[in-house]
Automatic annotation (TrEMBL):
It comes from the Eukaryota. Residues 158-360 form the Glycosyl transferase CAP10 domain. The gene is ga19556. It comes from Eleusine coracana subsp. coracana. The chain crosses the membrane at residues 25-44. The keyword DNA repair does not apply. SMART domains: CAP10. Keywords: Membrane, Transmembrane, Transmembrane helix. InterPro entries: CAP10, O-Glucosyltr/Glycosyltrsf_90. Residues 46-81 are annotated as: Disordered. Pfam families: Glyco_transf_90. This is Glycosyl transferase CAP10 domain-containing protein. The lineage of its organism: Eukaryota, Viridiplantae, Streptophyta, Embryophyta, Tracheophyta. Residues 61-74 have a biased composition (Pro residues).
Length: 436
């Protein structure tokens, strides 16, 4: 299973191989020499023609009926019914809490976030400006910025002015313990695709919601449908009773450990582990990475050997319960992680973030104006296909869902406690099973 919850386990999607990064470093270097000579990436350098419709000769019109800017829906359209966002939205408050406690975000803090950031993003009056600071892996930066542009199309007039720093690398870097006491005044607000308990990075939906062309992961709306179809194609009980995982093992020690749990001629821990072979599959068009094909196994998840064996045995002897767990996870993905919610998450996060800024966002001289048309026109192949597929076609005529309130101190403690207790409980069961 490889989904990309805005606030959930980002590592599932973060398939970045050592071998590939070596290649891509070379590739990036090349592209930096070739493209970087004119100071910026392809998609940023040639955006100056943004207002003009694309020349129709070489590119078909993206969306002929595309007014710019898209009309703002009347605020009254937002229903007054209970339209609460899913509860994971409450982590927006958690992610921003340190800066609220520090009295807001200063320019000094933002500048510090620039130390590792891939790009600076400024939104002023509904237009986006990007200053590219470092090369990103593959097309992550392009697809992330694309996502923000689609947010502006979906909610015209509602995205506040802001200035932020975004880091496209997988792992969080803003260590909480470094920013205590007087150091809080330089605490960097840095956006990225994931966070954890010992860091302060602000979590933002990852690029693959708009597509991941390098490994043929479609935009999320299409992928959700494929997953649904895949789930319907093979009855749960008819699936192979194994845990299934596919990814690139060289990314982390945990993943290398996981490969050791694979079935062999001498052992079977009920796990079927597959290497994501970038080069072989690249040639085959990554047909085999298609997530909906992975529904042929009952338990698409990862954990370590004993846990896997225990969990699969448990699942196979508690079929009804296991199926219910799977069903609830699918429902969560289909309903609470819909693209509508992804955009609402972005809007609420950016709105709350903007409220904390203690300086007036300004467009740095190096930043260039970016718009959907120019970005998509310059893309080619799968990249272009995914951009067009994930393009927001019209403004939303209802408001975003209502942001739920922050956790009370006690609530969050309870939540963490419950999670720890569940893990402890399962570890005890696992120990019991391995003794018997
Ligand atoms: C609104 O709905 C959500 C879930 O849909 C629920 O958790 C929440 O308690 C509801 N709030 C009110 C005030 O009814
Ligand atoms: C795991 O075992 C299966 C079945 O033998 C094999 O096809 C697969 O390549 C193995 N995975 C890895 C990562 O070696």
């Amino acid at each position: 299973m490889a989904t990309a919850a805005p606030a959930a386990d980002c590592r599932r999607r973060a398939v970045l191989s050592t071998t590939l990064s070596r290649t891509s470093a070379a590739f990036l270097f090349l592209s930096v020499v070739v493209v970087g000579a004119v100071a910026s990436a392809r998609w940023i350098t040639s955006t100056t023609t943004r207002r003009r419709p694309s020349p129709a000769r070489s590119h078909p019109p993206l969306h002929p009926a595309l007014p710019h800017p898209i009309p703002t829906p009347s605020p009254s359209a937002a229903a007054s019914n209970n339209n609460s966002c899913p509860s994971y939205f409450r982590f927006i408050h958690e992610d921003l809490r340190p800066w609220r406690a520090a009295g807001g975000i200063t320019r000094a803090m933002l500048d510090r976030a620039g130390l590792t950031a891939t790009f600076r993003l400024v939104v002023l009056g509904g237009r986006a400006y990007v200053q590219r600071l470092r090369p990103a892996f593959q097309t992550r930066d392009l697809f992330t910025i694309w996502g923000v542009l689609q947010l502006l199309r979906r909610y015209p007039g509602r995205v506040p002015d802001f200035e932020l720093m975004f880091d496209c690398v997988d792992w969080p870097v803003v260590r909480t313990h470094l920013y205590r006491g007087e150091f809080a005044k330089i605490m960097p607000p840095l956006f990225r695709y994931c966070g954890d308990d010992s860091t302060l990075d602000i979590v933002f939906p990852d690029w693959s919601f708009w597509g991941w062309p390098e490994i043929n992961i479609k935009p999320w709306d299409a992928l959700l449908q494929d997953l649904k179809d895949g789930n319907n194609r093979v009855r749960w009980l008819d699936r192979e009773p194994y845990a299934y995982w596919k990814g690139n093992p060289s990314v982390s020690v945990t993943r290398q450990e996981l490969v050791k749990c694979n079935v062999s001629s001498t052992q079977d821990w009920n796990a079927r582990i597959y290497n994501q072979d970038w080069f072989k599959e690249g040639k085959a068009g990554f047909k085999d990475s298609d997530l909906s094909n992975q529904c042929a196994h009952r338990f698409p998840f990862s954990s370590l050997t004993d846990s896997i064996k225990y969990a699969v045995d448990w699942g196979n002897s508690h079929k009804k319960l296991a199926q219910r767990i799977g069903k609830q996870a699918s429902n969560f993905i289909q309903e609470e992680l819909s693209m509508d919610h992804v955009y609402d998450y972005m809007l609420h996060l950016l709105t709350e973030y903007a409220k904390l800024l203690k300086f007036k966002p300004t467009k740095p001289p190096e930043a260039v104006d970016i718009c959907s048309e120019s970005l998509a026109c310059q893309a080619e192949g799968l990249e272009k296909k995914f951009l067009l597929e994930s393009m927001v076609k019209s403004a939303s005529d209802t408001g975003p869902c209502d942001l739920p309130p922050p956790f009370g101190a006690h609530e969050l403690t309870m939540l963490k406690q419950r999670k720890e207790n569940s893990i402890k409980q399962i570890e005890m069961w696992e120990q019991g099973a391995s003794k018997s």
